[in-house]
């Protein structure tokens, strides 16, 4: 990571493709496991697709930058850029406000939730956890998705 290899091919394409891969797997095995892609109506499918886009384009960029600054840079002996943290913390709060509003109206587990988990796990180990906990619906959602047995197994592997 210090050499920046994670920001070059083939690693960068793996991250982008991972969402497409998880969507393919969820659709391929929809009848065999709990559904992760909502297909019972066009409207619900569209809403689920919107939230997958929101995660990819609103949450992930901000959460990734914050994770890099607050967790990974210190791990590699690099100095955290406080200006980047402050800028992205403000963006995270805006995203979480949108989530709080939406989660107050409806909630169902799907692929978009799974896509949040890696960055959520990182951010919950930082001072930014307060932003999730201060929003009741977001806090409940985070508790629900991080308590899933399969996620627990993933976290245990990191160990």
TrEMBL record:
One biological process term in Gene Ontology: toxin catabolic process
Cell compartments where the protein resides: Cytoplasm, Cytosol
Reaction(s) catalysed by this chain's protein: RX + glutathione = an S-substituted glutathione + a halide anion + H(+)
Stored CDD domains: GST_C_Phi
The protein's Enzyme Commission number: 2.5.1.18
GO molecular function: glutathione binding; glutathione transferase activity
Cellular compartments per GO CC: cytosol
Domain GST C-terminal per the UniProt entry, residue ranges: 41-159
UniProt keyword Nucleotide-binding, yes or no: no
Signal sequence annotation: none
InterPro entries listed in its UniProt record: Glutathione-S-Trfase_C-like (IPR010987), Glutathione-S-Trfase_C_sf (IPR036282), GST_C (IPR004046), GST_Phi_C (IPR034347)
Entry-linked Pfam families: GST_C (PF00043)
Entry keywords, A to Z: Cytoplasm, Detoxification, Transferase
Similarity comment: family membership: Belongs to the GST superfamily. Phi family.
Name of the protein described by the UniProt record: glutathione transferase
């Amino acid at each position: 990571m210090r050499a920046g290899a994670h920001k070059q091919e083939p690693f960068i394409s793996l991250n982008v493709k991972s969402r497409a891969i998880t969507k393919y797997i969820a659709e391929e095995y929809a009848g065999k496991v709990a559904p992760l892609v909502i297909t019972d109506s066009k409207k619900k499918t569209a809403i689920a697709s919107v939230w997958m886009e929101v995660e990819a384009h609103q949450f992930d960029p901000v959460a990734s930058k914050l994770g890099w600054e607050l967790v990974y840079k210190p791990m590699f002996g690099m100095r955290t850029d406080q200006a980047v943290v402050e800028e992205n913390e403000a963006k995270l709060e805006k995203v979480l406000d949108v989530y709080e509003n939406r989660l107050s109206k409806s909630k169902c587990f799907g692929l978009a939730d799974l896509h949040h988990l890696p960055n959520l796990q990182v951010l919950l180990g930082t001072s930014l956890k307060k932003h999730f906990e201060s929003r009741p619906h977001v806090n409940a959602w985070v508790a629900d998705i991080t308590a899933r047995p399969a996620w627990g197994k993933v976290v245990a592997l990191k160990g």
